[in-house]
Amino acid sequence: MVTGTDRSARRTHARKELCIAACEVPRHIGHGTRVTSAATTERRSRHFRRCRNGQIFGIPTSVSELEPNRRVRIALISTPFVAVPPPRYGGTELIIHELAEGWTRRGQQVELFATGDSRTAAQLEWLYREAQWPPEVLTDLNHVSWCVEHILRGPSVDIIHAHSAAALACCRLVRDIPIVYTIHHAREDQLSSFYRHYPDVHYVAISSDQRHREVDLPHVEVIHHGLDPAPYHAVPTHPDEYVCFIGRFACVKGPHTAIDVARRARIAIRLAGEVHPPDQEWADAELKSRLAEPHVTYVGSVGLREKASLLGNARALLAPIEWHEPFGLVFIEAMLAGCPVVAFARGSVPELVENGVTGFAVSSVDDMVDVIRSGGAIESIDRARCRARAVERFSADRMVDDYLALFERLKRSPDSPGPRESPDPRMVA
After folding, report:
1. What integer is the mean pLDDT of 76-93?
2. In 3D, which of 268, 255, 265 has the Cα closest to residue 370?
3. What is the DSSP string of 75-91?
4. Strand pairing category for 50-52 and 55-57
5. What is the pLDDT of residues 172-211, one digit of tens each?
6. What is the chain's Cα-based Rg?
């Protein structure tokens, strides 16, 4: 029988071990480790200043003891597939970047679990030195399990914010830290069934349409994506005479339809994006010949600077989607650049695009042609107003604050688990 005295002694011993282990800073770089700077060493020294009678001084033991500029301690789990921020493709990782930087600027303590080639003002932890593309299930599982193990062995955190479904399975081992999980995908029955096994997770949907299509989850709310407006600049008066398409070259995204619409409207079109392996057969059959048409310019996969310029000078962004788009990050990128969005009214489009202000939600190819042709309704859009409305609704600051408000509610909720008494996974109760 294990007595209360025994438990207390074991916790005391575990805390002393944690104090010693935390001060043993790795001096090498290798698989499963990270670069530890002198600044990081000093931070650890401040956190683990001394041990006496089993107490670790310098570590807050409850939310009320946190310093004002460290109100929330966040473990932010990205994917192992794309660096943060992404060099080119990677909507999820771009949002993670905005969150990490925004929270850090607000004085929160953020630990970002990403790949070693990421760049962040937060504390970076990594298992894989470089992004592991293309995505593989086992790679993701290896990454998130390492993240959770690292979190359990380190100083306690207030929130784990995950962006990979695989992380939920690993977080089953975490009984006393609130888990927030952002759903980045359209409804998939297999994943929806998986989510039912985790009713205590706090889910974030990225649009109301996505939430309504998902299974009924006990804890879910909508937080729209947001981006830093600074890289995007609106052309105040007359854009160039072309429309554009930016995104993955897949049937559901509609690049082939965008080319057809531009041809019928007698307007040039520039396309940026790439084909992913699952869509190669479709692209060969439906897209390859269209890319060779005289009104088409293919600009390849673009980074943020090229994308901002492409959107800022375009007459409109075309999005003839053939699926229920859960959000559409490129929509708000276009709006922030003052570029109106003309999209089929499916998925999140009706809640993101304001007709006559930031673009038009249309119901058919014919309607899209009529809107963008010379003399069409697209010419009535005030591009400065379009950008201003996008900044109001879809800035990174708004998104960062929305998530922090959620985290604060979880911390205050009596039903939410509190900080761990001991982070040592070897503790036997």
Report:
1. 94
2. 265
3. EEE--SSS-SS-SSS-H
4. antiparallel
5. 888 889 999 999 999 999 999 999 999 999 999 999 999 9
6. 24
pLDDT of residue 48: 32
CATH of 242-392, one of 3.30.420.10, 3.30.420.40, 3.30.365.10, 3.40.50.2000: 3.40.50.2000
Cis upstream peptide for 417 (omega within 30°): no
Same CATH fold, 242-392 and 70-228+395-429?
yes
As a whole number of angstroms, the distance between CA 88 and CA 343 comes to 23
The whole-number average pLDDT for the span 386-414 is 94
d(CA 166, CA 172): 11
Spell out the residues 6+ positions from residue 383 whose beta carbon is closer than 8 angstroms to its own.
234, 235, 236, 237, 239, 338, 339, 340
**19-52 tens-digit pLDDT:** 333 333 332 333 343 443 333 333 333 333 333 3
CA 72/CA 419 separation, integer angstroms: 11
Q: Which amino acid is at 296?
A: V
**φ and ψ at 33, to 5 degrees?**
-120, 180
Residues with Cβ within 8 Å of residue 305, at least 6 apart in sequence: 231
Tens of pLDDT along 255-284?
A: 999 999 999 999 999 999 999 999 999 999
Contacts of 19 (CB under 8 A, 6+ apart): 48, 51, 56
**Cβ partners under 8 Å of residue 276, min gap 6:** 134, 248, 249, 250
Alpha helices in 108-207 (DSSP H): 137-153, 166-171, 189-195
Q: Amino acid identity of 328? A: G
Helix or strand or coil: residue 362?
A: strand
**How confident is the prediction for the chain on average, in pLDDT?**
84
Has domain 70-228+395-429 been given CATH number 3.20.20.450? Answer: no
Q: Are 14 and 22 in contact (CB under 8 A)?
A: no
pLDDT over 70 at 313, yes or no: yes
